[in-house]
Amino acid sequence: EADNNYTVIHKDYGEKVIASKTLKVIEELLNQDFCRVHRSFIVNLSKVKAIGKGRSGNVTLVDDTEVLLPRDKKDELMRRLEEA
């Protein structure tokens, strides 16, 4: 999750780590198991539980966190999940 020039990394069991790097830098370090679903969020594809219906909506993760999913990112997320 982007937080200005920092990134908040949400780990399992509610633990959070703050990195002094932008989300863009973090995104470049991650492998194909992750997808940028919003300008402020990257998600682990293995943690996606549901995707809202319609052109845009929310992504629900296994811990019931909901992340806004703009319509321009939905197609990419669907494609990445099919590949995984």
Low-confidence stretches: none
Question: How much of the sequence is in beta strands?
Answer: 35-45%
Please state the structural category.
alpha+beta
Number of strands: 8
Number of helices: 2
Q: How much is the average pLDDT?
A: 92
- What is the CA-based Rg, rounded? 12 Å
SSE pattern:
EEEHEEEEEH
> Strands of the largest sheet, in order across it?
1-2-3
Largest sheet: 3 strands, antiparallel
State the helical fraction.
Answer: 10-25%
* Ends distance: 22 Å
Shape: globular
Topology at a glance:
Layout: E1 2-3, E2 6-10, E3 16-19, H1 23-29, E4 34-38, E5 41-44, E6 48-51, E7 57-61, E8 66-69, H2 71-83
Antiparallel strand pairs: 1-2, 2-3, 4-5, 6-7, 7-8
Give a brief rundown of this model.
This protein is of the alpha+beta class. The protein has helices spanning 23-29, 71-83, and strands at 2-3, 6-10, 16-19, 34-38, 41-44, 48-51, 57-61, 66-69. It is 24% helix and 39% strand.
Could you describe the 3D structure shown?
By secondary structure, this protein is an alpha+beta fold. It has helices spanning 23-29, 71-83; strands spanning 2-3, 6-10, 16-19, 34-38, 41-44, 48-51, 57-61, 66-69. The strands form three sheets. It has a three-stranded antiparallel sheet, with no helix packed on it. A three-stranded antiparallel sheet has the order 6-7-8. A two-stranded antiparallel sheet has the order 4-5. Strand 6 and strand 7 (57-61) form a beta hairpin. The longest helix is centred in the C-terminal third of the chain and has 13 residues, at 71-83. The model has no long low-confidence stretch (mean pLDDT 92).
